[in-house]
Amino acid sequence: MTTAALQTVLTVPQRFRGPVGVANGGWIAGTMAEALNGGRSAVEVTLHAPTPLETELRLEHVANTVSLSHGDKLLVEAIPVAEELEGPGFVPFNDAARAEAGFAGLKAHPFAECFACGLREPGDGLRIFPGPVEGSDLVAAGWRVPFTVTGEDGVPASIVGAVLDCITGWAHFGPGESALLGRLAVQIHRPVLPGGRYSVVARPTGRDGRKMFGQSAIYEVDGTLVAAARATWIAPR
Questions:
Q1: Higher confidence at residue 71 or residue 5?
Q2: What sign for the dihedral angle of Cα 13, 180, 81, 71?
Q3: Matching InterPro entries, A to Z (predicted)?
Q4: Where in the chain is the domain with CATH 3.10.129.10?
Q5: Spatial separation of the C-alpha atoms in residues 37 and 51, rounded to whole Å
Q6: Which of the chain's ends, N or C, has fewer CB atoms near its CB within 10 Å?
Q7: How far apart are CA 11 and CA 47, in angstroms?
């Protein structure tokens, strides 16, 4: 890193793809939140363009903004936001795990290769399969944290971002439906522990034309809020 420009090079490994050929938006959002302030206070990440995989990208930190670019093309921008992100509501782990049976992606999945919600091998992908929670507008999944996503300092913000991302889309999607993440605000309240069990919960919070809005959270088994996010998705024309 050069202190004058505060620039580093970021390369997204093939493993952390969302749609085929591009990075998972939540993984990118978590990475940007970590770069800005460690994700401890809320960070809003705007995805201007798909982020390519296995490509050297420029991560630049200027004042209160972190940006990710490929050559002259701005891909992603992150800024702090002065708010506490709230969760959609706690679902006990066993209920969240039972909801997975209703995951729409098991019938038709638009992004079956996705690191977070795709149908990849256990330990490779996260396999977050949110299904509807009976008697509510929530979707939920149980997450048993694989040791294969653990870094030297525990589970990184990039993984937390990926977990919080796709579930906000599945709060809206039926089988075969899809959209792309446009913006994700992330706040991490406490560490995620390798091997831990967590409830991942989301709810839809509205629509405006092609835009779909949602909020999500990760909860400990006793209902303690671990991390929260709010998302804007953009449906295809």
A1: 71
A2: positive
A3: HotDog_dom_sf (IPR029069)
A4: 7-80, 93-234
A5: 21
A6: C
A7: 16
Give the pLDDT of residue 54: 97
Per-residue model confidence as pLDDT tens digits over 103-144: 999 998 999 999 999 999 988 999 999 999 999 999 999 999
- For residue 169, CA distances in Å to 97, 203, 205 come to 18, 9, 11
18: left (phi over 0), alpha (psi -120 to 50) or beta: alpha
Written as one letter, the residue type at 236 is P
- Report whether CATH 3.40.50.300 matches the domain 93-234: no
Query: Is the model's pTM score more than 0.70?
Result: yes
- 183 contacts 232 by C-beta, under 8 angstroms: yes
User: Among 134, 103, 132, which Cα is nearest to 119's?
Assistant: 103
Amino acid identity of residue 155, one-letter, is V
- Among residues 207, 204, 203, 215, the alpha carbon closest in space to that of 234 is found at 207
Q: What is the residue-wise DSSP string for 41-78? A: S-EEEEE-SPPBSSS-EEEEEETTEEEEEETTEEEEEE
Q: Which CATH number fits domain 7-80: 3.40.1110.10, 3.40.50.150, 3.40.50.300, 3.10.129.10?
A: 3.10.129.10
Radius of gyration of the chain (CA): 16
Structure tokens at 143: 């997450």
Residue with tokens 């050297």: 56
End-to-end alpha-carbon separation of the chain, Å?
Answer: 41
Which has the closest alpha carbon to 140: 111, 114, 112, 117? 117
- Over residues 26-58, the pLDDT tens digits come to 999 999 999 998 878 999 999 999 999 999 999
